[in-house]
Amino acid sequence: MHSSSRVRTAAVAALALTFSLVSAVVAPTAQAADNPFERGPAPTTAILDATRGPFATAQVSVPSSVAGFGGGIIYYPTDTSQGTFGAIAMSPGYTAAWSSISWLGPRIASHGFVVIGIETNSRFDQPASRGAQLLAALDYLTQSSSVRTRVDASRLAVGGHSMGGGGTLEASSDRPSLQAAVPLAPWNTDKSWSEIRVPTLIIGGESDTVAPVSSHSEPFYNSISQTEKAYLELNNASHFFPQSVNTLTGRMAVAWLKRFVDNDTRYEQFLCAGPTGSSVQEYRATCPMVS
């Protein structure tokens, strides 16, 4: 072989090696960039079941003088290196204050979300009114609140307990651009939600006598047909299970929000197979979920 050929061959080999090394370095970065909304470490059951997630949080009060709802509290991650976060507005149930389910605020926020827990205009507001108030709270959060620059207004969700859960369905019907909904022991006189296009996780209690699952949670779940959905029934749980810390409710709510607000498929492992154990009466879900 002529020396010039050997030089060319060596040069090509060196170039190929360089390209392969660069590819090895670049590939993980490109892969990570596939989902710009991914926040936090790889999930585990231990992380999801802990009292707090990986993000430190702070909170700020919302005055009752705001338009459209009765004020409340915003919980948000203090980390400013992650960019903006998805957000969820949550409503308490009939006659209840936000304090009745307030444990969910910092718990969800600590996994990388901004949470606004609302007070309703009246403790007696019905689901349709609570749904409108949830949407008003999201508008306030993204447009006027002191933490609006931390929120990605394109990645919003709603949730709530009892009539707040019924209001969650109402809000999802009225604003199909929402990314996720989490009704807890939902109550509503409307049993059909075939128009909903918002991915919905319904959690009900087997022993609920206020909103029995047979006439509320299950018909709601069965009627949803145009989007991803999941139904978790907690064994022997009453209507008031969301009013005390419930590890499984927290785990599944966070996983659902991570999957559909953050588009983080790492959380499908908790949603497709679903939870098991003595606290689970039943679990159903549409899987595999659309990526």
TrEMBL record:
Protein name: Lipase
Position of the signal peptide: 1-32
Keywords: Signal
Protein species of origin: Rhizocola hellebori
The keyword Signal is annotated on this UniProt entry: yes
Keyword Signal: yes
InterPro entries: AB_hydrolase_fold, PET_hydrolase/cutinase-like
Ranges where the PET hydrolase/cutinase-like domain occurs: 31-288
